[in-house]
Amino acid sequence: MAQSQPQVLTLNVERRAPGKRFPTAFHFFFEARRDPLAMLLWAAREYGDVARFDAWPLTAHLVFHPDHVKYVLQDNNRNYWKGDLIGRVKPLIGEGLFTSEGDFWRRQRRLAQPAFHRERIESFATIMSTAGARLLDGWESIAAQAQPFDLMEQMSRVTLSIVGQALFGIDLTGEAADVGRAMLVALQFVSEEAFRFFPAWLALPTPRNLRFKRARAALDRVVLGIIDRRRQAAAADDLLAMLMEARDAETGEGMSDRQLRDEIMTFVLAGHETTAVTLAWAWHLLAQHPEVADRLRHEVSTVLAGKAPTLTDLPRLQLTRRVIDETLRLYPPVPVISRETLAADEIAGYAIPAKTGVMLSPYVTHRHPALWPDPERFDPERFTPERCAARPRFAYFPFSGGPRLCIGNEFALMEATILLAMTAQRYRIESVPGHTVQQELRVTLRPRQPMLMRLRRV
Fold it and tell me: Potential cystine with 337: which of 150, 180, 360, 456 (Cβ 3.0-4.6 Å)?
């Protein structure tokens, strides 16, 4: 795929970054798949802001300091493409904005950008609050029975409903269980692929491959069916309509059905999965810190006075937004970002050869002790304007950054803020005693176990 020319440096250093050597790439993948985030945290503590893993025939550099993250994602981003590792996600989402590169990515970004302008995103606030009210009404019986329920499953349901309305103008609630199950199977497959030495050959009819292909086919039936029906229907006012009507300024061409499918699959994954896990982790943290939850309820009660949040209320829900920001610090939905160099480069005085993997980690950088005192502590006050201004820009990058900044970040933040505020208005969400929840990297950072919670009416 065509690539613009990166910045090319003549290296004046031959210093190799400190790090660990593995006998082979097989040994690296075997160790990494057990707990990849713990492995990255260990590397940062052991070797500092730039580390190197050698695992024949692969070499990967780990870059943790905000200045170096900025260099990779923004200053010299054309030298850092997504590389072969991201290709292991393509069986699910194809050549969408998350996976595509070069001129094709730039064309797709130009076509999609108008659908995500702030004014357009703001028009979805009513969709979000309506879906939130419907979810919370359904919780009345759960609260009355005082039975544990899986919060992650509930958050997935409401965010899938919202993305269906915003993307297609269709309520996917009836299909939510099937779509959700198919998405989980597909996510599990591509997550495992990231830590396999040999990626799966999908042509082989193994049980694992067949499960994934059935899940992908189920998702395709929903997405391609909606596109087909829309081609035959009158104009609509949603993101899909804007994507279908978009035309390249240079060629006059629009997106094919396949391109639409890939972008929509990307938006469904990003638009419902990432917000769902953020909300689930937010309530997990609030249940562990009831004093913050009480302050949150006080803010919501004062600002909203019992009504549903509107767009004009959001700037005054300052603690609510800080809770979301702090949750994204501790549990960034995509905790590892992979890149690969096109040309040789230099970072922090260390030589970075061409065609070398470079890994960034919001999860690790968000715990950098020089930037985040007591980094494992949940403290939304880290995100007051004064404290934010004192930190480097890329000390916090839950949505990546530079030209590849997530196109839907404003959508996700508005959705999370509205749903968190509406839930706090009506319910206390409390942990089930004795039930533990661990994190698991599955493309997104999900809870490994069902996130069992109990509800109490406020």
Answer: 360
Q: How far does CA 144 lie from the centroid of its chain?
A: 34
Find the domain containing 225 and state its range.
97-327+402-458
Q: Is residue 146 part of a domain?
A: yes
Closest CA to 179 of 148, 213, 144, 223: 223
Q: Is residue 389 part of a domain?
A: no
Q: Measured between alpha carbons, how far is 91 from 458 in angstroms, rounded to an integer?
A: 45
Which amino acid makes up residue 44?
Answer: A
Q: Which residue has the tokens 């990849």?
A: 36
* Cα distances (Å, whole numbers) of residue 353 to 49, 118, 229, 237, 344: 18, 40, 49, 48, 4
pLDDT, tens digit, 9 for 90 and up, residues 92-127:
888 988 888 888 999 889 888 888 887 888 888 999
Q: Are residues 406 and 426 in the same domain?
A: yes
Domain count, the chain: 2
Q: What is the arrangement of strands in the sheet containing 149-150, beginning at the earlier edge strand?
A: 149-150, 452-457, 427-431
Same domain, 314 and 238: yes
Give the three-state DSSP class for 10.
coil
Closest CA to 455 of 153, 155, 143: 143
Question: What is the pLDDT confidence band of residue 143, given thresholds at 50, 70 and 90?
Answer: very high
Enter the pTM of the model.
0.91
CB within 8 Å of 117: residues ≥ 6 apart: none
Strand (E) or helix (H) holding 185: helix 176-194
